[in-house]
Write a structure and sequence with these properties.
CATH topology of the domain at 62-176 in chain A: Alpha-Beta Plaits
Number of helices of chain A: 5
Helix content of chain A: 10-25%
Helix content of chain B: 40-55%
Low-confidence stretches of chain B: 1-7, 9-17
Strand content of chain B: 5-15%
CATH superfamily of chain B: Cytochrome-c3 Hydrogenase, chain B
Order of helices and strands of chain A: EHHEHEEHEEH
Mean pLDDT of chain A: 89
Low-confidence stretches of chain A: none
Distance between the termini of chain A: 49 Å
Number of domains of chain B: 1
Order of helices and strands of chain B: EEEHHHHHHHHHHEHHHEEEHHH
CATH class of the domain at 62-176 in chain A: Alpha Beta
Number of helices of chain B: 16
Mean pLDDT of chain B: 89
Oligomer: heterodimer
Structural class of chain B: mainly alpha
Number of strands of chain A: 6
CATH architecture of the domain at 62-176 in chain A: 2-Layer Sandwich
Radius of gyration of chain A: 27 Å
Number of strands of chain B: 7
CATH topology of chain B: Cytochrome-c3 Hydrogenase, chain B
Chain lengths: 177, 408
């Protein structure tokens, strides 16, 4: 067939030289390569004792952030649920009562917020959609559980604890040269 | 090809070419077979070790992606494309982004093109590494596989710096990237470019000129250029048959015309040719990455299309206009022009095409993925007819049929 471009280079050589025909050199050079690897640094990681360093923007388990005063940021606008291609997020909105100002930042909040971790594909579109800096993905992994129901994470698992704040500042740097 | 044509097939020296006692057995190769790398079923008629005929079944992991895409806004289809050929997700993602950009008529800045080229070529290397090291495994050489998977891990680490995921990357957005290359990305990429050629050559020296490997693969599962073209093969499998068709050269996208690289082609389209073509394409990909990285233009990492590309987060929190755009884009309510486009990219396995019909609504009216694996798998029975059972396994792995892309 005529070549279609000028860039083709025929490269495959199937003729063996005499040295290649007598198996032995190839076998010994192969053995030598594998032998060298005995003395190289081990590439495996002994998880869970030792953990692989992950990128700051790793897309793992979600967190619902609180603001500096410890109030929940989520206003149950539902944009994350709309953006979710796996339809993993559900929420119920509620109005903030008097006396709850220290709990919720805005007048509306999510009374229940659930993510089904079995449905979630960790694509990060919810994080991208959130207009309130409320939902972020973190570098934590979702733990194994025994039952399917335990994978439906409610607010008790998703909202960050006031005494264990999760740093997401690195994720918010979109443009660092 | 007529019936069983043993004279023209290369017969492995240890196998007897005469039939055993005329008995023909039916063998189900798959759907769950450790040697098939995915859920493929082949109903083989075998005479001893020799395959008389084969019939393939598809659909074991069909997930209705094309139908699913008809019910998703455009930006939510990217995660679906991740799962086509999961060995090179970034190529699928960006191919989809470029299709939508073609539909809306958006021009990308040079920097976006070059960034895309870098990530796509990394993905191609990862894809070819998986295929080639697995050819090694199927010929009985497990060691090279472990060495090359260490290199693939490094590519995944590089992905992680740009998108936060390793396998199902969902990298970038319609209109460019969601974030710029950071310093860690560049450092990791440069270390990879420095160390990888040596390790890859070491892998090559284990197999490329090794007589055991050559005897095993030369003549296994061949396909002629004419038959390959009739099946509409593309990519490494067609190039192995001797046709220098490459979408990157024939129909350049994403500024591929700026780069200087060769198209390695083989002669007979057998397993050894396919292996060698992929080996050399990895080297060409490295050349492209070097050129793209050295000439990476300054500028924005996204196009200026405010109605499709999400505004920066700081503006969303502070300005009303950005907030409105943000809601419209996320909810998929931005007006999309009517029309139909076809865009194809050179995927890890061949020409990966997207045929998109838009009726102006929030979802595509119809979206078809031209999946190269689906086409390769059609030719599989013809390619293995008359060969040995173990060559059939080898043919499958050297064509790099990925179940996710086959069934979509």
């Amino acid at each position: 067939m005529e070549p279609l471009t000028t860039r083709a280079s025929r490269v495959v050589n199937k003729e063996m030289t005499f040295g290649e025909k007598i198996y032995l050199p190839a076998i010994f050079s192969g053995m030598w390569i594998t032998l060298k690897h005995f003395f190289k640094k081990n590439n495996t990681v002994s998880y869970p004792e030792e953990k692989r360093p992950v990128a700051p923007i790793y897309r793992g388990q979600h967190v619902l952030k609180r603001d500096d005063e410890g109030r929940e940021r989520c206003t149950a606008c539902g944009l994350c649920a709309v953006a979710c291609p796996a339809e993993a997020i559900t929420m119920v909105a509620a109005e903030r009562e008097k006396g709850e100002e220290s709990l919720y930042r805005e007048e509306k909040y999510a009374s229940t917020y659930e993510i089904n971790m079995l449905r979630c594909i960790f694509c990060g579109l919810c994080e991208e959609a959130c207009p309130k800096e409320a939902i972020f993905l973190t570098d934590r992994l979702v733990d194994a559980e025994f039952g399917r129901n335990e994978f439906i994470y409610g607010k008790e698992k998703l909202v960050e604890k006031t005494d264990q704040r999760i740093d997401v500042s690195q994720r918010q740097i979109w443009d660092n040269h | 090809m007529s019936d069983l044509d043993l004279q023209n097939k290369k017969v492995a020296p240890f196998a007897s070419s005469e039939t055993i006692d005329g008995q023909i057995a039916t063998l189900n190769l798959g759907p769950t077979h450790p040697a098939t790398h995915g859920i493929f079923q082949n109903v083989l008629q075998i005479d001893g070790e020799r395959i008389l005929s084969a019939e393939q079944t598809i659909g074991y992991i069909h997930r209705a992606f094309e139908k699913l895409a008809e019910h998703r806004p455009y930006n939510q289809i990217t995660p679906i494309t991740d799962r086509l050929n999961y060995c090179s997700s970034p190529i699928n993602n960006m191919g989809w982004h470029m299709t939508v950009e073609k539909l809306i008529g958006a021009e990308m800045p040079k920097r976006v093109d070059y960034m895309r080229v870098i990530v796509m070529e990394l993905a191609r290397i990862a894809d070819h590494l998986v295929c080639n090291s697995v050819i090694g495994v199927d010929t009985g050489a497990l060691t090279g596989f472990t060495y090359m998977f260490q290199e693939r891990e490094k590519i995944y680490d590089i992905y992680e710096e740009i998108c936060g995921a390793r396998l199902t990357t969902n990298v970038g957005r319609i209109g460019g990237f969601d974030r710029d290359f950071n310093k860690t990305f560049i450092t990791k990429l440069r270390t990879f470019l420095k160390e990888f050629p040596k390790n890859h050559d070491e892998f090559g020296s284990l197999l490329e000129r090794n007589r055991i490997f050559m005897d095993r693969t030369i003549g296994a599962g061949p396909i002629s250029a004419e038959r390959a073209l009739n099946y509409s093969f593309a990519g490494p499998n067609l190039r192995a048959a001797g046709v220098d068709y490459d979408v990157r050269v024939m129909k350049p996208y994403s500024s591929y015309e700026d780069f200087d690289f060769n198209i390695p082609v083989g002669n007979d389209g057998d397993t050894y040719d396919r292996f060698m073509v992929r080996q050399l394409e990895i080297k060409e990909s490295l050349k492209i990455i070097h050129q793209a990285l050295e000439n990476l233009p300054e500028g924005d990492y996204h196009a200026d299309i405010p109605s499709f590309y999400l505004p920066p987060k700081e503006e969303v929190y502070s300005s009303m206009e950005a907030l409105i755009y943000h809601f419209k884009i996320v909810m998929g309510e931005t007006p999309i022009p009517k029309g139909e486009v076809y865009h194809s990219v050179e995927g890890g396995n061949g020409e990966l095409g997207y045929y998109l019909v838009s009726d102006g609504g929030r979802n595509p009216y119809r979206l078809h993925f031209r999946r190269p694996c689906f086409i390769y798998y059609q030719a599989y029975p013809e390619m293995i007819k008359g060969s040995l059972l173990s060559d059939a396994i080898l043919t499958m792995s050297s064509m790099n049929v990925i179940a996710g892309e086959l069934d979509a």
